[in-house]
Amino acid sequence: MACDRPKHTTTQKSLKYRSRFSVKTENYIERPLSSICPCFTLIRMPPEVILKILSYLDAGSLFCIGFVNKHFQELANNNAMWYALYAGQQVKKKKPKLVDEVTDGLSAAGVQERPEGYWRKQLFKELAGHNETWKKKLKTIHLYTGLPSQTAQILRGLRVRWVITLMDGRGRESTFEQTHVHFSDAAVTVSWSAGDWPFIDQVTALQLHGVVRVPLRCPDEYKPGWKSLLTRVKLNKGVWKPCGSDRLVELLYVEQGITLGVWQKQREIAFIMVNLHYHRLVERSLLGSSTVQYQEAEHMAAFDDVDPDYGLHGYAAHIELYNTVGSITSGRFSKLFCRKDQIADGYLQLRVISKSNRSQHAALDGSISLPWCTEALQGKIEGCCMLGLTVFDEAKFPFWCVSAPVTMLVSDHAEVLYDCNGESFSVHYEDADGKVELELQWMEDHKQYFMVNLIIFLSVSKVNKHFGRDY
After folding, report:
1. How many CB atoms within 10 Å of residue 89?
2. What pLDDT, on a 0 to 100 scale, did the predictor assign at position 11?
3. Of 250, 193, 258, which Cα lies nearest the Cα of 232?
4. Quick check: 261 and 273 in contact, CB under 8 A?
5. Which pLDDT score, from 0 to 100, does residue 110 have?
């Protein structure tokens, strides 16, 4: 919650001598220096008088006045003043008959016995809504997505923002504020498109933080708040993978939902997109520290020594294709399973949509494209979009979560299922926990894409660890 102090400060010693002199104004009328700047008179007052004056300030003004100099910082940290502001905030919120009902009836001595800054921190938590009452709201589950239904509302209500920090080989850091946020069914896409961006070859690492700032009436650079580290990744040529391009920019996918947009010729970063899956997103954005990520408690399925196929059935999945504007298609599928003889190459195979079953085929609501924009230009990358996937186990717990860009490629070997001349396209995604194979069919008559084949592959090692099996 530390803020940078102004570079120029004035000490009491210097004020002692400077206040004896007069200065000439533009009209050549001599006036005491104290009449030009009231702080010269204010600082000579007894501390109890200054405290009385400061007690009439609001929280934002009281916080900012602590940046004037060391003397004002000590006065502005007075516990009694922050206790009064905290009690007043509680009165506004809970409307008790007496302030003592919400502040434990502390005496003046009890207020001052608290560590310095205690009541200020309590007030800031109240103003920012950083009191963890949101945990109750997360218990409400959306029937369609299987995820907490109020995730987007909680993040908006708490004014959560995300910032990225880029580091170069010399250890220099550059921080960028988000410029655009899009909430989809199961993920949020955050974009950064404004700023003085470095060249892609100069960047060595990227950090992503969730930030909650206290809504005080003061400049943004002075507002206190909390930072929670979501991810830290290294950036080099061996990490990023091309995932689409147009005439101006090329998309490079790094990992953990991070995508860099790079100008084709200059190889300078144009924008950055990050996809954040809703699973534990509120906790990850709030409960970590500036250097340590929030650690989720390890979850394992209940032990079952009766069912010989435990861990092979009872799966459900929610899938969505979307971009920075809206949803392209989505669907929820249940009763997914894999037979033991279908386990191959280290994967369990869950067939979600079958080519042979035309009743399962689903139409897409829009084209496969990914719009992008910067401060000066905008464009659209065809054949690229975002994939959101949540696989649930038999107990409806999120088992595998994906939110990342994917590319649509022409499929040479796929057979055409409809009486049309449309092409077939394949979409592939893979990480350490599994992979997804999706096939799309273009119907020329309808001028529309159809999802005709979808297979989810789960890592056998992940399944064995989660269910305590040995497949």
Report:
1. 16
2. 38
3. 258
4. yes
5. 67
Q: Which amino acid is at 153?
A: Q
* Gyration radius of the chain's alpha carbons: 29
Half-sphere exposure of 253 (CA within 13 A, CB side): 21
| Residue 440 structure tokens | 């799309």
Q: Please name which of 210, 214, 204 lies closest in space to residue 173, comparing C-alpha atoms.
A: 204
Structure tokens at 424: 């077939």
CA distances from 129 to 104, 151, 278, 299 (A): 20, 15, 20, 28
Compute the distance between CA of residue 396 and CA of residue 152 in angstroms, rounded to an integer. Answer: 21
pLDDT for 38 equals 54
| Regions in the chain scoring below 70 on pLDDT | 1-41, 94-110, 413-421
Distances (CA, A) of 207 to 62, 227, 295, 413: 32, 12, 17, 41
Written as six digits, the tokens of 238 are 């061996």
pTM of the predicted protein model:
0.82
Per-residue pLDDT, 31: 46
